[in-house]
From TrEMBL, chain A:
Species name: Cyprinus carpio carpio
Domain of life: Eukaryota
Protein's name in the database: Calcineurin-like EF-hand protein 1
Protein keywords: Calcium, Cell membrane, Cytoplasm, Lipoprotein, Membrane, Metal-binding, Myristate, Nucleus, Phosphoprotein, Protein transport, Repeat, Transport
Family membership: Belongs to the calcineurin regulatory subunit family. CHP subfamily.
Pfam families: EF-hand_7
TrEMBL record, chain B:
Transmembrane segments: 12-35, 154-174
Membrane topology according to the record: Multi-pass membrane protein
Gene Ontology terms, MF aspect: glycerol-3-phosphate O-acyltransferase activity
Region called Disordered, residue ranges: 410-430
InterPro entries, per the entry: LPCAT1-like (IPR045252), Plipid/glycerol_acylTrfase (IPR002123)
Organism: Cyprinus carpio carpio
Keyword Zinc belongs to the record: no
Full protein name: 1-acylglycerol-3-phosphate O-acyltransferase 9, like
Protein origin, superkingdom: Eukaryota
Pathway: Glycerolipid metabolism; triacylglycerol biosynthesis; Phospholipid metabolism; CDP-diacylglycerol biosynthesis; CDP-diacylglycerol from sn-glycerol 3-phosphate: step 1/3; Lipid metabolism
An annotated GO cellular component: endoplasmic reticulum membrane
Domain Phospholipid/glycerol acyltransferase: 216-327
Location relative to the cell: Endoplasmic reticulum membrane
GO biological process, one term: phospholipid biosynthetic process
Amino acid sequence: MGSRASSLLREEDIEEIKKETGFSHSQITRLYSRFHSLDKGENGALSREDFQRIPELAINPLGDRIINAFFPEGTNKKYTAREDQVNFRGFMRTLAHFRPVEDNEKNKDLTSGEPLNSRTNKLHFAFQLYDLDRDDKISRDELLQVLRMMVGVNISDEQLGSIADRTIQEADTNGDMCISFSEFTKVLEKVDVEQKMSIRFLH
Amino acid sequence: MEGFWAVFFPVLRVWFTCLVVLIMLPAMFGISLGITETYMKILIKTLEWATHRIQRASRAEEILKHSASNGEFIQPKSADHGDFTLSDVLYFTRRGIESIVEDDVTQRFTSEELVSWNLLTRTNNNFQYISLRLTVLWGVGVVVRYCILLPLRITLTAIGLSWLVIGTTMVGFLPNFRVKGWLSELVHLMCYRICARGLSATIHYHNKQNRPKRGGICVANHTSPIDVVILANDGCYAMVGQVHGGLMGVVQRAMERSCPHIWFERAEMKDRHLVTQRLRDHVNDKTKLPILIFPEGTCINNTSVMMFKKGSFEIGGTIYPVAIKYDPQFGDAFWNSSKYSMVSYLLRMMTSWAIVCNVWYLPPMAQKEGEDAVQFANRVKSTIAQQGGLVDLAWDGGLKRAKVKDSFKEQQQKKYSHMVVGDDSRFPQP
């Protein structure tokens, strides 16, 4: 728990993570070995460099934003000891968003409240990839930033600007030239978010 | 104290006599007394029994056979092109998270995970207490490996290496060329055979008719320094490498005396032109032994073959591909150089059950018309991967230590842009 440097996973920790995230015991131990193999410094926490060492992530245009999602704003002591490190608890919490929704039926062992991998929480995760300053709104600038990350140098500023404007126009219902979370949810209403934002975790 | 020495020396004498008669002499002449075979049979039976017990206790885990991704493009849209939508990020995100959970590259630089335990705690990540009998068996295994096999193997390797140095130096003094060559080959073979016994290596060679000939280049996938011993057990090769100091240096200089190898000074290695020229000179001289090269440039964990560096394929000789596949059940041969030093690696090798591997000699290949070195390298790599049952990856083994090039990310960005802006006419003009 917290920022212990020891690399052994205790049963109590596993139980807590199970309750919080809904992963099974074997999934947690398997992901723990993965966490451990990424943790080159062997200090029980991952830094941004540790993530960037994964070649497939490093070439992903949104790689930096995805890595960012593991390091939440402010230091919630349960998940990060320092701002630039995430411990196993925090690692699992972020990954929990990508559990398939069907898995919830098998595991009734969750704490009350919405599970981390509900549709709303998945959408919120995606929303936060855009919303860098965490003001619950995607501004035109923030949208442009993400667009620029995805297209690199291949599209001009003007064209990118018009794409951003069009997107905001279509989504914005209250006229504030920004996309709020509810507007975001409305746009993605027809999208199968549960399937697109779930990955298979081995049992 | 007197009594101790009185007992110790006869024991030592008996020990050495056994060693020489039962292991060294047969090894030197390439015949087998069947002791290793019996040992392997007992080992296999014990491991099967142990596995059976573990499976009764818990379900066996499946191994996820992830399809090899060679940096293939992530497909954000269902069609070939379409306007940008807010949901496009979802695909990139999912692929990113998938690669965090498991990726194709970083797993090649750590030892392979076994499906069933082979009674070595080092290979079992989830070691749990299953039953008393199993733990006892494991304990017996530890005693056998550390107290019986280890001293035996160390003695053998020491003898093997010293014989290599002494033998090659002696041959080096001979003036007559033809006999010298033949003797030098004999000495090398004998020493490598003793060293192989020193690791309890059981090697199965396939397709010996394709064995590399003089004036050619032998190319193989790289898992550990032991690959050299494995290959040299069945043929003589000219080694290529950097000049080392210390014990390695002594061995290198001794080997150089009896037949020509190619050792480079550290500074010379930077000059690619010089390296290629020296290799070319060696290859063009048809009386010299075939060169042994590992084009991956680094040790990979024997589940895949990574990018072959094109340098070896620009020299121009005939390429003889060789595939080496170790059986992980008996001992993990992969050298994780960032985790273990050479000495601790050798110690781990000598305390494994055995090293079992298959070596396939593949038919010689030559560069085709209109094929450049990179394409040729990839063709050879695929042949080796296919024969050895290894995953064929285009990723560079150098990623073990270096960062991936930005150009790959730019490629992804380019492809996505093409999708989004492919049809220009649909965009409102500013």
